[in-house]
Each structure stands twice: as C-alpha cells, then as structure tokens.
Write a structure and sequence with these properties.
This is Molybdate ABC transporter substrate-binding protein. Belongs to the bacterial solute-binding protein ModA family. It comes from Streptomyces hokutonensis. The chain is α/β, with parallel strands linked by helices. It has helices at about 5-45, 60-75, 90-95, 110-115, 165-175, 190-200, 210-215, 245-255, 260-265, and strands spanning about 50-60, 80-85, 105, 120-130, 135, 160, 185-190, 205-210, 220-225, 235-240. The chain contains nine helices and ten strands. Helix 3 runs parallel beside helix 4 and helix 8 (about 245-255) packs across helix 9. The protein starts with a helix and ends in a 6-residue tail after the last helix.
Length: about 270
C-alpha cells in the first residue's frame, strides 16, 4: 500500500469516529428531551389539588359524606370539602338556577335527571349506593308498630317525607303496592326533618331510610317492613358542568366510589350499588 493510500485510510477512520461520537451525542440529547417531556407530561397528568370542593348531597348522606370529606382533606392537604345537605329536589333546583357547586349526589335517578336534563352534569351519573326504607318509632316502640299497615291506625301520628323528595316518593310507592292509604300529620322537606319529628316526640312514627334510623342510634327504634324491598332508591353522583374546582371534584367522586368510600357507606347502612 502506498503512503498516500495509508494517509487517506487514516483520514476516513478519524472522520468515521467523529461521526459516531456525534450520533451518540445526538441520541443522548434526544433521550434527555424525551425523558424531560415524559416527566413534564407526568407532572401535568397529576396536578396538585387545592381549594374548596362544594358538594350538594341528599340529606340522608350527611353522616357518611361528612366522614369522607374529612378523609379527603387529610389525604389532600390544602383542600377543603364543604357540603350542602338537603332534599334532592331542592338541591337540583338550586343547581339548575346557577348555584355554584362541584358535585351533586342525589337520592334518586329522578331528581338527578332534573340536573342532567338541563345539561348541568358532565357525563353519565354513576350509581354509588342504594337505600331502603324503614319505619322509625319512639324508643322501645311503645305503640307496637310491626308493619306498614299499622301506620294507618288513626291513633298514631305519622310523618312522611314530601312526595317530591325521594324518600317520600319511595314511601308512596310502598303504600300503593300494599294498597294502603295513609294520611300523615305532616309532610317534611327531607328525610332528616321527618326523622327529627320522632326524635323530638312530635310524631309516633316516620317512614325514613335505614341509614337514618342507624344514624339516630338510641333516639329511635327501627321497624323493617317487607314492602320496602319494592321501593329501593339508587343514589347517583355526577360532576357538575360549571364546577369551580373540577380536578378536586373528580377526586372526591373517586373516593366515594373507592373501596374505602364504600366501606364508610356500608357501615352507615347503605346497600351496594
């Protein structure tokens, strides 16, 4: 091989090494950019939650949702969960009138439809629990109430939820199925108000939810009745369209539907969805 040929070969070898180094550097740089991009994407996918989550929920959810609200705040420092507990129809009317809220949890699909039919919900509401009726009597059941029919006795002062409220609609459904007619001393705006009439001894009995009898403890006595099986209410929950804090609202809904959330709700007497 001539001296000129050897020189040319060395030049090509050096050039090739330089190109390989350049390619390696380029690959490394590309990898760094890709890694950085993935990191940024991951960070944006899990934004830090803060601020207030406003939940409009059926009155019967008061105890269990209050517990879940505290758990949520503990798990997500910097957040606060505030509740508006009332009859589902009242809450639905407030939402469709523009009341600011993030989440709506109703005691029946019918009252949820008031909101979703107006386009104020996001996606399809999810049923997260179910609830069954029970008769609440005075402690010790002094009037010996053992059935739904017993509530028709003229000597008893009985309270029902208003027919527009899910617990009232369910009670009417059970009465109709049993071919019973009951004239209460009053119709109450929500299930807690109906129960409170018995707690205060202003009524002898009320048709409420099992969960409310459970929450009242020794203040009332519960009487189950078979007709309640035909009037079980599904409870749907949904993210609201104009939610001021949608990110945290979604996380609260996820907690309600999680195993931990279901554990709290089951302990309160709710049925599985």
């Amino acid at each position: 091989m001539t001296r000129s040929a050897r020189r040319t070969r060395r030049t090509l070898h050096v050039a090739g090494a330089g190109a390989a180094a350049l390619l390696a550097l380029s690959a490394c740089s590309s990898s760094d950019v890709s890694s950085s991009s993935k990191s940024d994407t991951s960070a944006s996918a899990s934004p830090k939650m803060s601020g207030t989550v406003t939940v409009f929920a059926a009155a019967s959810l008061k105890e269990s949702f209050t517990t879940l609200g505290k758990e949520f705040e503990t798990a997500h420092p910097g957040t606060k969960v505030t509740f508006n507990f009332a009859g589902s129809d009242t809450l639905a009317a407030s939402i469709t009138s523009g009341a600011p809220a993030d989440v709506f949890a109703a005691a029946s699909p019918k009252t949820m439809a008031i909101v979703t039919d107006k386009g104020d919900g996001v996606g399809t509401p999810a049923t997260f629990v179910r609830n069954q009726l029970e008769i609440a009597t005075l402690p010790g059941n002094p009037d010996k109430v053992t059935s739904l029919k017993d509530l028709t006795r003229s000597s008893l002062k009985v309270v029902l939820c208003d027919k527009t409220v899910p617990c009232g609609a369910a009670a009417q459904k059970a009465l109709t199925a049993s071919k019973l007619k009951l004239t209460p001393v009053s119709y109450e705006e929500d299930v807690k108000s109906a129960l409170n009439k018995v707690v205060l001894k202003e009524a002898d009995a009320a048709v409420v939810y099992k969960t409310d009898v459970h929450a009242a403890g020794s203040k009332v006595e519960g009487v189950e009745f078979p007709e309640s099986a035909d009037a079980i209410n599904d409870y749907p929950i949904v993210l609201l369209k104009n939610a001021p804090n949608a990110v945290a609202a979604k996380a609260f809904i996820a907690l309600v539907q999680s195993a931990e959330g279901q554990k709290v709700l089951s302990a309160a007497g709710f049925l599985k969805p």
